[in-house]
Write a structure and sequence with these properties.
Blueprint: E1 7-12, E2 20-30, E3 43-51, H1 53-70
Antiparallel strand pairs: 1-2, 2-3
Length: 71
């Protein structure tokens, strides 16, 4: 896994046909072997610091779709 504070470039795949590139900073890391925080899943979290308009719209649309499935 990346290190806390590391800048990473990620591709979000949200069910549409294209991936959306974002840049962010790793805010937490929870190794699968020795988890530091039991309330967080294994893996890492990222605070997005750079995102284009198409990616923002894709996230909003994905959230809307998931909300419709809950009602």
């Amino acid at each position: 896994p990346p290190l806390k504070g590391q800048v990473v470039r990620l591709t979000l795949e949200l069910g549409d046909r294209q991936g959306h590139e974002v840049v962010g900073t790793v805010t937490w890391v929870n190794d699968g072997q020795k988890r530091k925080a039991s309330d967080l899943p294994a893996g890492f979290g990222v605070r997005i610091t750079r995102i284009g308009l198409p990616a923002k719209l894709a996230i909003v649309n994905a959230l809307k779709r998931s909300r419709k499935g809950r009602t």
